[in-house]
Design goal:
mainly alpha; 0% strand; rod-shaped
Amino acid sequence: QQDQKQVHIDCYVHQLLVLQYISHWSCSINIIAIAKLMIQSETSL
């Protein structure tokens, strides 16, 4: 019974880490996209 619980907790922690990683990754992509847009708008002016 205890092992089952531990596996469940490990699974939960893993999911949290993956979600954190994905949200961080998409945030970084947004920053890069915004930076590119800003550079493009500056060069077009």
